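step: validate -> pass
step: tokenize input -> pass
step: predict -> running
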Amino acid sequence: MRHWALIAAAYLVGSLIFLWPMPSALDSAVWGDRFDAWTTLWLIGHLAEGLEAGTLSAHTTEILYPVGYSLWSFGHVALQAIGALLVWAGLGVVAAYNCLLIGGIWTSALAAHLLGREITGSHIAGAVSGIVFATSPYLYAEGAAGCIELVAAGLLPLHAWSLVRLNRQPTWARCAVAAVLLAIIGPFNWYYTLFAGVFGLGFVAWQIVAAGRDIQTPAKALQRRRGEAGPMGGGKARGEWAESNGARG
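step: predict -> pass
step: emit ->
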């Protein structure tokens, strides 16, 4: 846990440096100047006022008057709801917006590091993954465009991490973790829900194909399982193979 605390602190410092000079004007300037930034700022303030006054509703005419707008149409209201809670706790709207942007870069780096560490077993590889993902031109451009809900992309590598773990040791608990993470992505951004869902379907298809191949070539499947199990797991794999052959005989 100490390693992860140091890693989290390092990524937080890196996020502040990456977004500088915005952190020096946390409550007076935003990084990004277009319609997306202003609508997000408005929504954070609107949700905070509704929470404080107890008048929050799904439909409002305070934007796009007189037609109004449904808050469900934003497709990423969870992030702004977190911003509203920050405002309710005492931050200004601009400061809450900037904290969400910093948090988006920070959590994206952490999640990508976790994925890289899970795949390779190396924190060095994890650091490469985290730095490359969090400083990618895509996240930088979305932040500059004011689309902070797209900067908060950490749930994508986190969901991929859950699928990697599920592939290595299929259990109902790990399946549930992957499903819950996919469900959580939805309120934050429906684009990413679509991306993660397509990736999840691809993962399921891959597992079905792999299972069919193992049925057709059980000897190769056993050899692969021996390699995955390592020296300590070889005896178990051989025992299962002998039991399987005995059942067919």
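step: describe -> DSSP finds twelve helices and two strands in the chain.
step: cleanup -> pass
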